[in-house]
Amino acid sequence: MGKLLIVGTVAFDAIETPFGKTDKILGGAATFIGLAASQFGAKSAIVSVVGEDFPKEYLDLLSDRNIDISALQVVKGGKTFFWSGKYHNDLNSRDTLATELNVLADFDPVVPGNFKDADVLMLGNLHPSTQLSVIKQMEERPKLIVLDTMNFWMDNALEELKEVIAHIDVITINDEEARQLTNEYSLVKAAEKIQQMGPRFVVIKKGEHGALLFHNAEVFFAPALPLEDVFDPTGAGDTFAGGFAGYLTETKNISFNNLKSAVIHGSNLASFCVERFGTERMVNLNKKEVNQRLLQFKELTQFDIELQ
Amino acid sequence: MGKLLIVGTVAFDAIETPFGKTDKILGGAATFIGLAASQFGAKSAIVSVVGEDFPKEYLDLLSDRNIDISALQVVKGGKTFFWSGKYHNDLNSRDTLATELNVLADFDPVVPGNFKDADVLMLGNLHPSTQLSVIKQMEERPKLIVLDTMNFWMDNALEELKEVIAHIDVITINDEEARQLTNEYSLVKAAEKIQQMGPRFVVIKKGEHGALLFHNAEVFFAPALPLEDVFDPTGAGDTFAGGFAGYLTETKNISFNNLKSAVIHGSNLASFCVERFGTERMVNLNKKEVNQRLLQFKELTQFDIELQ
């Protein structure tokens, strides 16, 4: 059984979609990553920070899924990071209504002793300096370091972002961000340039249009499962990353072929995430549903073809 | 060897992309469909109309590829249909600069006697009444009728469009058009509704994001091949349709599994079409390149996965 160390936000989200709205509910990158990774056998821990206002039931929800939360700092008198957003009718774009950093502003991550030898390090979207600080605390270089980031850091901390990108193995990034980072419109060229910046593997997330995995001259594509209804896209990217990292931690094989499978597992879990608000669907997910949908992925994409 | 009857425009296009611009070059839906279908062994004919200004070398180009052009009317003193467009920087959207119907305005298609028993009828984008007139001229109902259309007819001839849709087996349509036709944002729901209108199979084209094939509860997805450079998207949708129809004509098997293969063949040929202006790449395409890229499609999408 492998060990997975997850760094990222644990937060309150308030979400509005064309189908309804929520008050403050459980959110945050590390939350979605952890829940997705918990579908696999890996032993995982979350490094993060919340305020005193964070409900015990949410902490229990994580530890009940065998996620070690001993390095999830609870700041006395502090308030938990809060994000609020409203999705447009097509669910492909959203407006951020509020971002209250609160305790996240002074977050100083501390890697717990028993995870300094983690096999896989999953760096959720955070300030690149925070991500780098975690890498430096590891006793041995993890077999695989996966990083998720976003355009905000390209705009505001590009040098730090480039530094952390030089230290990692896999980056997950969306198509627009890949283009912004490289000034290349072609995703093939963008992925080539990003590989030159450090990571051996580049995963480009295209939301409802699936995800691409690049490694040297190899490319793999996983579609998003066509769904009758997408309810709330919040957390889909983190769920993808969590499934990806969780699967690789458990299978301990970082060949291109196994990374393909990891992309499918990540896409599969993300397809559940978007069916309900926030973490609701992920919390109630069972193995049978997961396996059924993996078969759907296979039917969706597999074909026989004879050369002419 | 099956018989494929193709109805659609044969035209002049003038194209501007971020990479260059052309004068009037060979274009038109039936042209791209015919060139793509000619990659397979099927015997095909084009029903269309051009003016006296249409160069003999373009006619030869078609007949050299074993496309029967005896039903391609040449109107004395008439001018060929002309379309001009300019693509935006992302190549995903374009402005139409000119549409001169010319001889197309009075086009009255006449199906040649030797193709009234065609196995497959491919109706390229045209006025739905014209498409319907061709169906009615067939002596026996073709084994498969494939129809391509666009939003223009939804805006301007919706009732006629619905009538022709009720007579066909496969519709190829892009994602926005599928949404417009059904008032459903979810493509799964849109495809369900379209099947209720007539066609047993619905192909939703998503351009650089691939294509979906729906039939009852079954779904198949073919990605577009990630390319270093897309040069000119003109004709990609028609090339897709031509590859799809040409493959099915030749293999004479309209099972869902074989339609999957047809979608892959169509996507494969479309990936070449966009590499040069207009028909340039399709005209110079050889079997070896086609087969090589089919293998790339396989590598791009195939995976092994074990259920947990």
TrEMBL record, chains A, B:
Q: Cellular component terms, GO, for this chain's entry? A: cytosol
List each copy of the Carbohydrate kinase PfkB domain by range.
Answer: 21-281
Read off the Pfam families from this record: PfkB (PF00294)
| Gene Ontology molecular function | kinase activity
What Gene3D superfamilies is this protein classified in?
3.40.1190.20
PROSITE patterns named among the record's database cross-references: PFKB_KINASES_2 (PS00584)
Determine the domain of life of the protein's source: Bacteria
> Which UniProt keywords are present, listed alphabetically?
Kinase, Transferase
What's the name of the protein? Answer: Sugar kinase
